[in-house]
Amino acid sequence: MQAASTGNTFDILKPSTRQRIAILPDMGQPEANFAIDVAYQAQKEWAACMGKDRDAVLRRLYDLILANCDDLAVILTAEMGKPLAEAKSEILYQFMHGAANGSVSRTCHS
């Protein structure tokens, strides 16, 4: 993980116990500008890809989300304090909802 240019960090706490579960860099404007520049370049490369190649990437993402849904739900539960079943449903719903509403389709055919 990249350090913040300031060296500052912040804690991620488990809501139910206030136990620290992660320490993250406290990013600022320089890191935001860098992320925007990298995303701008990546979008150009993504747009230049054939639709079938973008589809393969999105399919791989879908497969990874399904394969790791339980682990993702545990992380979401620790971070947000919601019940595990709700976290798992939210992960699956958000991904499927985006696909059903055309988010994946629009990305593939832009």
Automatic annotation (TrEMBL):
InterPro entries tied to this protein: Ald_DH/histidinol_DH, Ald_DH_N, Aldehyde_DH_dom, Aldehyde_DH_Superfamily
Residue ranges of every copy of the Aldehyde dehydrogenase domain listed in the record: 5-92
Keyword Transport: no
Keyword Oxidoreductase: yes
Keyword line: Oxidoreductase
SUPFAM superfamilies assigned: ALDH-like (SSF53720)
Pfam families: Aldedh
Gene3D superfamilies reported for this sequence: Aldehyde Dehydrogenase, Chain A, domain 1
Recorded family membership: Belongs to the aldehyde dehydrogenase family.
Protein name: Aldehyde dehydrogenase family protein
Originating organism: Parasulfitobacter algicola
